[in-house]
């Protein structure tokens, strides 16, 4: 990812998630596939996770049931900051409580995560995809 792509993606992710509340989750077809929904006023955004993720806490347990419980405890909490990795598109959402959701952005063969602003999936104006090999695809609706 170039410096320009990194800056653009960081701005879009901040627009999508910063100050938005985590309002829901759908469980996908695979064991690691989860679809998270966020809302801020009339603005809605989503994050589809298809790769490894975890809720960072002092306890280093990575038990799936415990991680899902920690994620669900973040319901209705607002995102305070968004961080994007520089070498790979690892995504970190930091909530007001200080709890962070880390989503791995690198996989050899598959997409790790996608984010957009149109429910249930897709992008009304923005769509970002963490592609295989650590690439990041950015789709922005062009102004008419």
Low-confidence stretches: none
**What share of residues are in beta strands?**
35-45%
Per DSSP E runs of 2 or more residues, the count of β-strands stands at 10
The tally of helices reads 2
Main pleated sheet = 6 strands, antiparallel
How much helicity do the residues have? 10-25%
User: How far from one another are the termini?
Assistant: 27 Å
Q: Specify the structural class.
A: alpha+beta
CA-atom Rg in angstroms: 14 Å
Sequence of strands across the biggest β-sheet: 1-2-3-8-9-10
Mean pLDDT: 89
Spell out the helices and strands N to C: HEEEEHEEEEEE
Shape: globular
Give a quick summary of the entry:
17% of the residues lie in helices and 38% in strands.
Notes on the structure:
With 144 residues, the protein is of the alpha+beta class. The chain is 17% helix and 38% strand. The protein contains two helices and ten strands; from the N terminus they run αββββαββββββ. The chain has helices at 3-17, 64-72; strands at 21-27, 34-40, 43-49, 53-56, 79-84, 91-95, 100-103, 113-116, 126-130, 136-140. The strands form two sheets. The protein has a six-stranded antiparallel beta sheet, covered by helices on one side. It has a four-stranded antiparallel beta sheet with strand order 4-7-6-5, covered by helices on one side. The protein is globular and about 40 Å long. The two termini are 27 Å apart. The model has no long low-confidence stretch (mean pLDDT 89).
């Amino acid at each position: 990812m170039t410096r320009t792509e990194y800056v653009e993606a960081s701005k879009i992710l901040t627009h999508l998630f910063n100050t938005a509340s985590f309002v829901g989750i759908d469980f996908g077809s695979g064991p690691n596939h989860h679809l998270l929904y966020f809302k801020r006023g009339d603005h809605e955004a989503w994050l589809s996770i298809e790769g490894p993720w975890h809720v960072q806490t002092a306890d280093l347990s990575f038990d799936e049931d415990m991680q899902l419980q920690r994620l669900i405890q973040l319901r209705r909490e607002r995102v305070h900051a968004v961080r994007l990795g520089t070498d790979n598109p690892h995504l970190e959402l930091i909530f007001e409580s200080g709890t962070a959701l880390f989503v791995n952005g690198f996989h050899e063969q598959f997409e790790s995560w996608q984010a957009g602003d149109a429910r249930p999936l897709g992008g009304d104006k923005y769509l970002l995809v963490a592609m295989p090999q650590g690439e990041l695809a950015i789709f922005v609706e062009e102004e008419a």
